[in-house]
Amino acid sequence: MPIKNTIIVLPQFHKQRLDIFLSVQLKTSRSQAQKIIKAGQVLINNKSPKKAGDQLNQNDEIQILAFAPSVSVVKKPFCRPKEIKPTTPNKIPKIKIIAQEKDYLIVAKPAGLLTHPTIADESQTLSKILAKKFPKIKKVGEDPARPGIVHRLDKDASGLMVVAVTPKMFKHLKTQFKNRTVLKEYLVLVHGQVKSDEGKIDFPLTRSKTSERMAAWPSHQKQADDFVGRPALTEFWVEKRYLNFTLLRVKIHTGRMHQIRAHMLAYNHPVVGDQLYFQKKQKRTWDEKCGRLFLHCVKLGLVDLSGQTREYSLELPLALKNFLKKLT
């Protein structure tokens, strides 16, 4: 009998298309989600859907059967991250340990690696690699699929992350993230010349009903009646301007899904190398040359169990440094 994974449709996904819902949940493309549906591997309340565009209702049970070998759920990007080569799926990516403390780890997540498994149960994720290297982590957290994980970085982003090693530190970190006291700074290269030397973006965010993206609504525009967004605040400072690009230091005060990427697109300066949040009119040549999403967490600050503030820094990966040299 096939193994089933079940997802309950939450209120924010009410009336969303099935294929879009699956693409978000499985972190794959819409076309790949449609293939899974067409292959008969998806049920809605124990019944086969009529079509990929069926609308979901709140509290629907979406059951996904174990993936058949013939069905791929891997998103094919226009440019592959250099850190992880897709031609060697069995090779375990090397995770750099920045700091190994008694109660937590500070690690450098490479681009192209998921923080934790999705419902597709990927074999290579940061959480699985660390749990294998540090078995103590396996018993830490609220979800066995993501032991020790208290926050995440997008798959195509890179940089600093903190992972709890003990239950006490896990709870301590969760409280800090909930209270938004954790310092997170990123270096982000965006398209176009940002005119202001510094600024704040406070556009509310919500999941799009028509695509895989998060939707941001600029604060100066009148919101649609059916738009229900969550508060989100992104702050930035210009590090350097190039001819057609701007390097920003970005600090997020909230931790919404795809926050920086969605905010920068709505701000009319999409992130270089972003396969999801881009403008149709923009030329993709430089995105392809970059070869990955130019979003890297360079600073992380937290309070340890003794009450001491700890800050960690990380340089840009060599590939991103070399890309910036091409712009000068």
UniProtKB/TrEMBL annotation:
Key words of the record: Isomerase, RNA-binding
General function of this protein: Responsible for synthesis of pseudouridine from uracil.
Protein name: Pseudouridine synthase
Gene3D superfamilies tied to this protein: Pseudouridine synthase, RNA-binding S4 domain
Family designation: Belongs to the pseudouridine synthase RluA family.
A family per Pfam: PseudoU_synth_2
Protein origin, superkingdom: Bacteria
Alphabetical list of InterPro entries matching this protein: PsdUridine_synth_cat_dom_sf (IPR020103), PsdUridine_synth_RluC/D (IPR006225), PsdUridine_synth_RsuA/RluA (IPR006145), RluA_PseudoU_synthase (IPR050188), S4_RNA-bd (IPR002942), S4_RNA-bd_sf (IPR036986)
GO molecular function per UniProt: RNA binding; rRNA pseudouridine synthase activity
PROSITE patterns membership: S4
